[in-house]
Write a structure and sequence with these properties.
Radius of gyration: 15 Å
Shape: elongated
Distance between the termini: 34 Å
Strand order of the largest sheet: 1-2
Number of strands: 2
Oligomer: single chain
Order of helices and strands: HHHEE
Strand content: 5-15%
Number of helices: 3
Helix content: 25-40%
Length: 81
């Protein structure tokens, strides 16, 4: 609850109940599917920890894609294909 308040509700002007429900739904999805959690050793609750990249040639060609959620309040980062 505190994470939701600090990362979402303290930074967002909520217009009405529909907007609140949409924002909470997006944050829940982000938190459970993408955001890393220390207690889970940098995994998301609904996603396993990715395999580390140890090959030097793959590290040199790293291409990261950013996806903004909730108008740029939340950011998801992933390796682009």
């Amino acid at each position: 609850m505190q994470t939701c308040r600090h990362e979402l509700l303290d930074r967002t002007l909520i217009w009405n109940q529909a907007h609140l429900l949409h924002a909470l739904s997006e944050f829940e999805s982000f938190s459970n599917e993408h955001r890393t959690h220390r207690a889970l050793h940098s995994a998301a609750p609904l996603r396993p920890v990715p395999e580390p990249i140890t090959e030097a040639e793959r590290l040199e060609r790293l291409n990261v894609h950013r996806r903004d959620r909730l108008g740029g309040l939340l950011h998801e980062y992933a390796h682009a294909a």
